[in-house]
Structure formats: C-alpha cells, structure tokens
Design brief:
Elements (H helix, E strand, L loop, with lengths): L3 H9 L2 H26 L3 H18 L7 E3 L5 H7 L1 H20 L11 H17 L13 H19 L5 H16 L28 H33 L5 H16 L6 E3 L1 H9 L5 H17 L1 H4 L4 H15 L2 H5 L6 H17 L2 H22 L2 E6 L5 E10 L4 H6 L9 E11 L2 H16 L3 E5 L3 H11 L6 H4 L4
Parallel strand pairs: 4-5, 5-6
Antiparallel strand pairs: 1-2, 3-4
Length: 493
C-alpha cells in the first residue's frame, strides 16, 4: 500500500501538466472509443461511456499514475452479435471480477518472465498497428487531397512548436489550430462527427438484463476470461513501458485490481470492457502528464466534451488526430532495435521479430507476446543446456570410473547426460559426482535413476556423491512417486 503522502503527490504533484495533457488525451480518446464501439457492433455511446468510467476509476484505484486506460474490448464482437448488448455488459462485469481476483492473488509477478526482446517486439508491433490504423483516414479513394496537407501541417506543429515554447502541449495546439483553420476556411474534410453520433445524456446505473443461470455463465465466461487476461497483459506491458519512460516504479498487482474495479463499474453504466492504451498513454506522457490527475481529467473531459460540447467536438478534423497518432507511432517505435539487429544475439533478434510479425499478422497482442515468451524460453533452455558437461576418469587399475557432472541437469540437457555414459564398459564401481551440478526437474531425476539402473544391470556398484540439498530434496520428492526402489538407487553418499 502506498502512503497518503505519496498518493497525494501522485494527484497534485504536476497539476498544470496533468490538466493540459488530460485534455489532449480526452480528444484523442473520442475517435478511438467510437471506432471500438463500431467494431464491437454497439452504439458509440457504449465505448464513450466506458472510456470515461475506466479512465476515472483507474486514475483512483490503478497502480500506474499517468497511464491511460479506456475502452478496447474488441474480443466481444461475437458475443454481441449472438446474444446482444446486455450479455456484453455482464461479461464486462465478470471480466472485472476476474481481474480483481488475479490482482488479489498477486499474479502481476508474471511480467518478470517477459524478456526485453518480447517487450521491444510488443512496443514495435503496437507502433506499427497504430500507424496502420491511420491509413483508412489517408485513403485517397475516400478522403480529399486537402487531408494530406492538414496532416502535414499537424505534424509540423507537433514537432516545431516545442522549439518555440513548451507552455502548452503541441498536440493540443495542433487540434486547436487545425480545427480553427478548417472552420474558418470552410474546408470539407472528415471530422470526428463523421465517425458516429455523440451521446447527449449522462450515463446511468444499469443492471444487465440477463437470466441468472448457469447457461448465462457458460455464455459469458469464455469471452470474459479472454478479455480479462488479454486486457491485463496489455495493461501490464504498457505499465512497464510507462515505468521506463518516467523512470518510476509502480504496483502491478494494484494495477490488476484497478483495471478490475474499472471494468466492473463500467458494466453497470452501459459500457464495455477496456484496458490500458499505449497510444493514449504515450500522448499523455509526451504532453507532460505524469500523475493520476491526468487520467482522471482525461475521463472527465471526455464526458464533458461529448455530452456538453458535442457540437464543437464533432467538428474537429480527423487530420489533426491522425497527425497526433502518427507522432505517437513514430515515438513509440524503438528505432534503436533496428540498428541493434546486427549486434544483439541472434536469438534475441528472432524473438523480437517473431513477436512483431505475430502481432501485426494476427492483430492479437496476447498471441504475439505468447509466441515471444515461448521462443525466449526455448532459446534460454538451449543456452543453459550448452553449459552442461560430463567428464570421466578411469582408475589406475581400470576397474572403476568416476563421472563428473557440471552444469544444470534438466529436460534440455538430459539427452547429453545419458549420452556421456558408456554402459557397456566392464567396471566394478561407478561414481557419479554431481557436486558441480544442480538437478531441476522430473526428467533429470528419471535420467539419473535410469543411469544408475543401467550400470547396475551390467554388474557395477554405483554411488552418487556431492548432491546438494536442493537437488536431494527434489530427488526425495519425485523418486518416491516414480517406481519402487527408486530412492534406494538414488541415495546420495
């Protein structure tokens, strides 16, 4: 638990920067929320209400100040199509409860096992997806040529305005200038209003109208579980990135709980599930947002803008938001990782590229990270197995041999371990010295047991010496459950 002083600092330590960045993020959230609503097959207000609720609740209860969370639940498409909106709301509530449970179980530690290569691949893939998501707004078949000039002007403002002053975030200046320009000159370009109707009423408390039966649970549990796990994965990966950008540390388990509370609350006001959004989080950080206030302001401003100032917001040119998201894409991509392809170990580069390729090809962040983590594990196991070795020494009388095992004995080195022994050699005594080795799993216990068994079948007396306490404990536990006599064969002397 964080202290009251720290919590207060996270709210009031950067008021001006958080207010201005929160406004920028609120404007950037609107088209994203509408787009996700359209993809899910629901009214735009479902995504907008959700973005408001999730941003506000995670600002209060989340574990990462300055990280923006909003509606992103595209895994609910089939559920909405087959069963309707109220099942979506119920699944959102259930997903939130699952996330709270995962947070209370302190499962945030799993992020320790996501390698740097996977993280880099995740970031690069998201940067590519963010850029690809802007291409429909740049399609020459559907947008006027003037759009390209506005996007170029927006990028110029974003990158050049900070050289003049940093009193206001350049993305906010871009939105204001391009909106004023299009309204003043009466330019016919796509606007936020063209994406969908904005709501004109505040959200209200709503209990999903579904039967409370096991059949309902059977319907909503699979998508709710998928949304909960994928949402936490994206949130924790984004959290790690924001930690690095701001050079601060945050609580992963608290973020799990905060995301869960946000989704649970959102389901009761007619919103769909969501998670942390790397694009909007990058906008927030680059615009000066650091504290909880920035996320809170983004949610509150979003609701004020769409409900109270909908007529103005609907006139914001999409070109301004496209320019901002292109900036985010460029800033998110790890350009140094491209240069490092020649210098980094080949296995690290393969993991990074595989993560990027999987995410971009499938548009499934969880699948890409899973592929990267699996490859990282395989390459790591292969490296550890290469450090394993077995040497032997024959006694002067030729009747005894001592095998010395060095390194990590596990499933990846078992084959080399067994190949190192000559079971047909006529010996009276065999000593297997494991003082410089460590036994890790059941595969290695069984291999050691099999080696002893084979030597004894050839008439040799076998001793195992030097087994450390941890290895001996594992052998005691696993060998007893294997087969009768296993412990007798593996007794250390």
């Amino acid at each position: 638990m964080i202290s009251f002083a720290t919590y207060r600092q996270q709210w009031l330590g950067n008021v001006q920067g958080d207010l201005l960045s929160g406004l920028v993020v609120a404007l950037a959230l609107i088209p994203e929320a509408i787009a996700f609503s359209i993809i899910a097959g629901v009214d735009p207000k479902v995504g907008l209400y959700a973005s408001f609720s999730i941003a506000v609740v995670t600002a209060i209860a989340g574990g990462r100040p300055g990280m923006i969370s909003a509606a992103t639940a595209v895994l609910m498409v089939t559920l909405v199509r087959d069963h309707g909106l109220h099942y979506l709301l119920a699944a959102t509530v259930l997903a939130g409860l699952i996330q709270i449970a995962l947070g209370l179980l302190k499962l945030g530690f799993v992020m320790r096992y996501v390698s740097r290569s996977v993280m880099t691949g995740f970031v690069n893939a998201l940067a590519i997806l963010i850029f690809l998501a802007q291409l429909p707004e740049l399609d020459p078949r559907t947008v006027p040529p003037l759009t390209y000039l506005l996007v170029a002007a927006g990028l110029a403002i974003i990158y050049l305005f900070p050289r003049i002053t940093r009193a206001a975030p350049s993305p906010l200046v871009t939105i204001v200038v391009l909106t004023a320009l299009t309204l003043g000159l009466g330019l016919d370009v796509r606007t936020v209003g063209d994406m969908g109707a904005l709501p004109d009423t505040l959200p209200v408390f709503l209990i999903p109208d579904i039967p409370l039966t096991f059949e309902t649970l059977r319907i909503i549990l699979p998508p709710a579980t998928a949304v909960a796990v994928v949402g936490l994965l994206e949130s924790l990966m984004t959290q790690t990135l924001v930690d690095e950008l701001t050079d601060t540390r945050s609580s992963r388990n608290q973020e799990c709980i905060g995301q869960g509370l946000a989704n649970t609350a959102t389901g009761f006001i007619g919103g769909m599930a969501g998670c942390a959004m790397i694009g909007q989080s990058m906008i927030n950080v680059k615009s000066g947002g650091r504290g909880r206030l920035s996320c809170f302001v983004a949610g509150v401003f979003l609701l004020i803008l769409v409900v109270g100032l909908g007529d103005f917001v609907s006139r914001i040119p999409m070109a301004a938001l496209v320019a901002i998201m292109i900036m985010v894409s460029i800033g998110t991509f790890s350009w140094s990782s491209v240069k490092a392809l020649r210098t980094h170990p080949r296995s690290s580069s393969v993991v990074m590229l595989a993560t990027v390729a999987t995410v971009v090809w499938t548009h499934n962040l969880a699948l890409g990270v899973l592929v990267g983590v699996l490859l990282s594990g395989i390459f790591f196991a292969a490296k550890i197995a290469q450090l394993f070795a077995v040497t032997s020494e024959l006694s002067a009388d030729g009747r005894a041999r001592t095998y010395r095992v060095e390194g990590q004995l596990f499933y990846g080195s078992v084959e080399d371990f067994m190949a190192a022994f000559d079971f047909r050699e006529l010996l009276e005594r065999v000593t297997i010295d494991v003082s410089r080795a460590h036994i890790w799993d059941i595969s290695s216990v069984q291999a050691l047991d099999m080696a002893v068994l084979k030597f004894r079948r050839e008439g040799a007396e076998v001793r195992i010496v030097g087994m450390n306490e941890a290895s001996e404990t594992l052998v005691d536990r696993l060998a007893l459950h294997d087969k009768p006599g296993a412990m007798d064969r593996l007794t250390a002397h």
